[in-house]
Amino acid sequence: MDDDKKGSMSNRQGPEGNELLPFTVQFLRGRWFQLFASFLIMAGAGATYLFGTYSSEIKTTLGYDQTTINLLGFSKDLGGNIGVLSGLVAEVTPTWFVLLLGAALNFGGYFMIWLAVTEKIPKPKVWQLCIYIIIGANSQNFANTGALVVSVKNFPESRGSLIGLLKGYAGLSGAIVTQIYLAVYGNDSKSLILLIGWLPAAISIVFVYTIRPLRPVKHPYEGRVFHHFLLISIVLAVFLMAIILTEKVITFSKSAYAGVTTVACVLLFAPLFIAIREELLVWKLKKQPIIPPTKTTINTPKGEEDKSKQEAIFDDKSCFLTLCDKPKRGEDYTILQALTSIDMCILFFATFCGLGSSLTAVDNLGQIGESLGYPNKTVTSFVSLVSIWNFLGRVFSGFVSEILIVKYKLPRPLMMAIVLLISCVGYLLVAFPAPGTLYVASIIIGFSFGAQLPLIFAIISELFGLKFFSTLFNCGQMASPLGSYILNVKLTGPLYDREAMKDLTAKGLTRSQVKELTCIGPRCYRLPFIILTSVTFIGALSSLVLVARTRKFYKSDIYKKFKENTDNI
């Protein structure tokens, strides 16, 4: 075989024997393997979504009433959404330190909860258990900051689709971890708490040096690659949903759960092959001879030079002196500039209404099913359905909003308003239930809950730039625990307990005569969910205000500067 034929075959095939090691090193240090590792980290970073599964175990073992459980749910939301610490840590430390710190917090928090519910330590006070939950839940912010922020900086032109995929895998994690725990531990919700303590921590430690910022590289078919990732993730979601529905009618053995978990893990690792394929394309293109570009002289207009000088001076100013001298939308805002802008205030309020209501609904889903007379196995299916549709909502909002921006120049906040209006339908189905409607409500609530997060994160990155994105996106989601506290702890919990006390009074019992307060009937959650519907509708209206304010910005090419600063392969 002559040299030309050998060269031709080399271009069509993968690296030759002597090239295998260099290619492997390039792959392990490349963007695509970093993205695959981010998928796995996010797939283990959604333990907060399983609170509805193990909260009943805490309630029964420790003898809490619903108000206390809702307080624990608020603590989980507080820890899961107060990510400013992880953002600030990421600004001054390398990514590996962020991931390691998150792994330590994850294991420490959930391990203490497991010790409490298994009665291996004395019964903790409520405030102590709240701290454990806050610590464990806060760890997911370190995973988000480490994996999500780095990925957005590595793939800035596909951020909508990327955020949707990453947050989608986090939404799927509830169903994935549930199948793993059923295969390993059986139907023991106490062991679930232990699993969500060690598994996410182990994943972060394995990929601790893989997740790091890399200079973006122009890829000829980047959008198509993300659609391939989307297809695999949808297959995984459909498979998990099919298993969840099958579990309703068939009792699985432990070996059957082991088989299901094996298939789920194969689908979870399938993006690795796409990552190898794309890195192989990069490898081949780098080996092609490079034709040097014709040298041209670019004369910078005087106005642009002045602007560059102003930006240099602007960076040297104190952050407090630039509060009234904000840059244009899409430029890099300082942290204080972004937090004091009208756009951020509107987005903060919409997040308060939307995510606050969604978190309240998800946290109470187990008790809602119980109050409507559904068996425990069915209630577990509701929680898993929320996880699946949470994923679909995230990838849908990420990809669809990206299409609306690129093709039709429609503002991303418009998608936010639509999602909030859809969630109102789910809340009304809980407030006025009919036989079987809780299945539909679970799907709508899970879908709308998941769809909000990618939109919020993408909007923040687009309006305020990527320079301080680690801190800003964590600041942006701080509204959700505030909304959860008011709507869940101060509203839903007391109203539920009030209805439960009516049941006790009708039976001639007092609070001291029962271990836990339980309300049965559709009236238990009617008033709270009518209020949640109203609050969410107001949030949708505020999103429309942001649409009007940003319409002109989204009509422009919002990714122009990233296209100019991207390396060719």
From TrEMBL:
Tell me the CDD domains matching this sequence.
MFS_Mch1p_like
Transmembrane portions of the chain:
32-52, 96-117, 168-186, 192-211, 223-244, 256-276, 335-362, 382-406, 413-432, 438-461, 527-548
Q: Which UniProt keyword terms apply here? A: Membrane, Transmembrane, Transmembrane helix
User: What does the record say about its membrane topology?
Assistant: Multi-pass membrane protein
| Residue stretches making up the NFD4 C-terminal domain | 338-554
The record places domain Nodulin-like at: 31-276
Compartments (UniProt record) = Membrane
Q: Which InterPro entries match?
A: MFS_trans_sf, NFD4_C, Nodulin-like
One GO location term (cellular component): membrane
**Key word Magnesium present:** no
Alphabetized PANTHER family for the sequence: NODULIN-LIKE DOMAIN-CONTAINING PROTEIN (PTHR21576:SF29), UNCHARACTERIZED NODULIN-LIKE PROTEIN (PTHR21576)
Q: What is this protein called?
A: Nodulin-like domain-containing protein
